[in-house]
Automatic annotation (TrEMBL):
Protein name: DNA-3-methyladenine glycosylase I
Organism: Pseudoalteromonas citrea
Entries under Gene3D superfamilies matching the protein: Hypothetical protein, domain 2 (1.10.340.30)
InterPro entries, alphabetized: Adenine_glyco, DNA-3mA_glycosylase, DNA_glycosylase
Pfam family, one: Adenine_glyco
Coiled coil feature spans: none
GO MF annotation, one: metal ion binding
Keywords from the UniProt entry: Metal-binding, Zinc
Entry annotated with the keyword Zinc: yes
Superkingdom per UniProt: Bacteria
Binding site for Zn(2+): 5, 19, 177, 181
The keyword Disulfide bond appears for this protein: no
GO biological process: base-excision repair
Length: 201
């Protein structure tokens, strides 16, 4: 039996699949990064599993996470989504998703891709933390504080240092798998000879 991260509830197959296949894997595709940011910002004040269960609902509600289509959503769309039980019906979070899409596009225009902008914060290197117990999991980092501050300056909402750190974990900027988790070394082995800077330029 594989040893997995201490935070994971192994009785939830969808949670296990997310952990095994996605969490902590370096991600460079802008559409996926926008999806991750949307879901993380929706999580604020809630459990990640609550959002994970609604992932398909979000995908359908927000144009398969096509950032250009989301950026064009209107007040009528917001009103409609407030009746959609497949997502978190929080008006401020729905408005933030549309707002964040618009800010995301501006970053793409400035940097060429959101991926290039994002990975610069870790100098195109995966940060590997020493995780031996639940107490070792960071909630924020110096980088997530700086990243969140820059996002806020650029108009993003519901993306404070803790939420941004969770995004960094999810998108592989940080490898926070437990030392004993089978995925920690697998990911490191997969990426040890890959030049991340080349992947985002």
């Amino acid at each position: 039996m594989c040893t997995r991260c201490l935070w994971l509830d192994p009785t939830k197959p969808d949670y296990v699949a997310y952990h095994d296949n996605e969490w902590g894997v370096p991600m460079f595709d802008d559409q996926t990064l926008f999806e991750f940011i949307t879901l993380e910002s929706a999580q604020a004040g809630l459990s990640w599993y609550t959002i994970l269960k609604k992932r398909q609902g979000y995908k359908k509600a927000f144009h398969q996470f096509n950032v250009k289509d989301v950026a064009k959503m209107t007040a009528c769309d917001v009103s409609r989504l407030m009746d959609n039980t497949d997502i978190v019906r929080n008006k401020l979070k729905i408005l933030a998703t549309i707002n964040n899409a618009q800010a995301f596009i501006k970053i793409q225009g400035e940097f060429g891709s959101f991926s290039r902008y994002q990975w610069q914060f870790v100098d195109y290197q995966i940060t590997v933390n020493n995780i031996k117990s639940k107490e070792d999991y960071p909630a924020t980092s110096e980088v997530s504080v700086r990243f969140a501050k820059d996002l806020k300056k650029r108009g993003f909402k519901f993306l404070g240092p803790t939420t941004v750190y969770a995004h960094m974990q999810a998108s592989g900027m940080v490898n926070d798998h437990d030392n004993a988790c089978f995925r920690k070394q697998e990911i490191l082995d997969d990426w040890q000879h890959i030049d991340i800077k080349e992947r985002v330029t």
